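Per reviewer request, we include the raw input and output of the structure prediction for the construct analysed in the revised manuscript.
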Amino acid sequence: MESPILAPTVQDFITKNIGVSLSKLALQKNPFLDIEWLAVLKQIEAKTKAKDKLPLWFATENIIYPSKISVEQTSSEKTAQYKSTLVSGDSLIDLTGGFGVDDFYFSKVIKQVAHCEINPELSAIVEHNLQQLKVTNISCHLGDSKQTLIECNSQWDWMYIDPSRRNDAKGKVFLLEDCLPNVPENLNFYFGYSNKILIKTAPLLDLSSGLSELKNVKTIHIIALENEVKELLWEIHKDYQGAISIQTVNLVKDKIEKFEFVYNENENLPNFGTPKRYVYEPNSAIMKSGGFDEVALQFNLDKLHKHSHLYTSDSVIDFPGRSFEVTKVIGYTKNEMKAVFSGIKTNITTRNFPESVENIRKKWKIKEGGNTYCFFTTNEKNEKIVLICTKIA
């Protein structure tokens, strides 16, 4: 790909200005005669976004970046790498290739990957970047992905789809039927070319809403990165009619927190009890899953309240979330609050509590920070209580 952006002087300028204020740079005179200043600024902006999200791309020479929005919408390397563990076989076609990060990692485990992209500029950028990354088993196909499927006329071991969540008429959307491509509408057509489909959706999509739009769902993967849910992955197998597995994953620095249960199968209720020596808060992927009773049952923990989603035990366990040792439990009363919180710093979390963290801080003049963690919550007797804790994990 011949582009003035790739000139060594331009690339050097871009690298030296990573993280510099764009508004400050915009006021400078364009030092390059054969390239628009805005194009240089956009490369700096997008590459800055890629520094933490896409470290391999950032560290590779002569990478060309698309718009900042394309970089923002692409998978991070960490989530893409995990995603590649979910597929196997000889062939995969990505109907919505985008910047190609997912396909790069799919290509590590799949012999042949097809990258489909309707945007000519983005398709050319990905093809160029794959050469810089020395990837040889990804083919780039420009044009409408449905047409590409028809023209290739092949059976694929996997199909991957990341529908665009922007609609020209409706703006940002979350229902699958409003995304492009419309997966629910085209599902039977897609099954003509692959028996296994992996669909990525926004984390805001409600699980029951997605299940009402899709059929043959075998597994829903909820992927969080550093305790922030980044994406939902819907694994669909042609003609599958069995139980739906929910698999939650939180990718943290030194470990992967996993939790799994069967959707809507559990009929048992957990035990409810008063706070014991240790208390646990599930990670964000589990919170998104809604498997609150399953957490208590699988780890043999008591819940504090049906809606509090905090768990407790007498002995400490390895838990997929944050773990705390309880040092004191008080009632949410004026006297007890004044006696404990007069002029101290603490970290506050609310769970099933009628007041916001902001209101609590303002009302009781509590500053943020320190090594104490407080949970403002409700116990099984519907009493408002405060758990004063120290963090252990």
